[in-house]
């Protein structure tokens, strides 16, 4: 039976009268790659900081690796690899020195750190420079290395691909999947829907501090609309708009465009009796699936 690595119950954090998160129930199982999705300001960062014991909850509680996230926050920090949204790095230290410094707290995992840096294209020449001279992308790469280098059982990552170019993002996806294969659980926040679709197995959607739902990615894909276009050689059949799942049918001459949710077979059977010159199906984006399923309550980020 899967083991819960993160279990939050009615987790709530208020900043005065402002809601950070409210009544959040969240469970992440061992070995999952879990995406935490929402627009900026939705409560993603607050949730991760609560799980790390960096914030005291107003009410509710969270367990991380069987530890109370607030009362046992020191033990949580020892075990969890954490990538904050804006990493505060020692600017007067070199990247090389920072990897060695952090390794002293993590069973001297220097070799892992330098190997990760090389894969993320931070070579020794870069690492010998002081962090103050790094670009934003270089700082993000180094922060990722510092979070990953001890090979923790759990990774909490706040917008991990921020400032990374597409090639490095792809490398990071590969690394996280490798970590998952060796037993690491990953919870990462994002406002980038294609990224979540690519990385995650299951996703939680947060909006205005409230978790509005969790779904498996394949389930969300199955709920997507199909955009269908059919061009007939001759006669155009009637009654297609009455078929189950068909909406928004538009007809122009011998061309029909429609939206279809669910089983496509009844549509195929209906048009099989006619001469079809062309038939195309495209899926609505995952973004459309989220917006349709949970309602248009906010502006979602795009890559």
Overview of this structure, please?
The protein has helices at 44-51, 73-79, 95-103, 110-119, 124-127, 136-148, 166-181, 193-199, 217-222, 265-271, 286-294; strands at 4-15, 18-29, 33-37, 59-64, 67-68, 80-83, 154-158, 185-190, 202-207, 210-216, 226-232, 246-252, 255-260, 276-283. With 303 residues, the chain is of the alpha/beta class. It folds into two domains: 4-88 and 151-221, 3-Layer(aba) Sandwich (Rossmann fold), CATH 3.40.50.300; 225-283, Alpha-Beta Plaits (2-Layer Sandwich). The strands form three sheets. It has a six-stranded mixed β-sheet, sandwiched between helices. β1 (4-15) and β2 (18-29) form a beta hairpin. α4 packs antiparallel against α6 (136-148). The protein is elongated, with a radius of gyration of 24 Å. Residues 296-303 have low confidence and may be disordered.
Topology:
Layout (H helix, E strand, L loop, with lengths): L3 E12 L2 E12 L3 E5 L6 H8 L7 E6 L2 E2 L4 H7 E4 L11 H9 L6 H10 L4 H4 L8 H13 L5 E5 L7 H16 L3 E6 L2 H7 L2 E6 L2 E7 H6 L3 E7 L13 E7 L2 E6 L4 H7 L4 E8 L2 H9 L9
Parallel strand pairs: 3-8, 3-9, 6-7, 7-8
Antiparallel strand pairs: 1-2, 1-4, 4-5, 9-10, 11-13, 11-14, 12-13
